[in-house]
Amino acid sequence: MSIRILADENVNYEITKALREDGFEVVSVAEISPGITDFEVIELAVKLNAVILTEDSDFGRLVFSCGNKTNGVIYLRYSAREKEEVVKTLVEFLKTQKELCGKFIVVTLKKVRIRSI
Question: How far apart are CA 62 and CA 91, in angstroms?
């Protein structure tokens, strides 16, 4: 698959693992640069030409209010008991998408919202 994903350090490892098992290229901040700031995550994503996958709502502020340039962001919102279903929603969504660049995407249990950056 042509989508490269940079999983923020706060993304549950089971999600990273599930995406990799489904054939997605996922680079994990926890594995390569633990402890970097959100700004450094954005810089790394741009350098890697990757979309950021995060569970941190601060990325909305960083992108929309602060104007940080990024390839795109996928923000996961779910409760612990919803994790498996949200992963299924995320995988199915990603399988149908050709272009995520320039988008801020919110994935919840029942829906996916897409907003242009």
Answer: 25
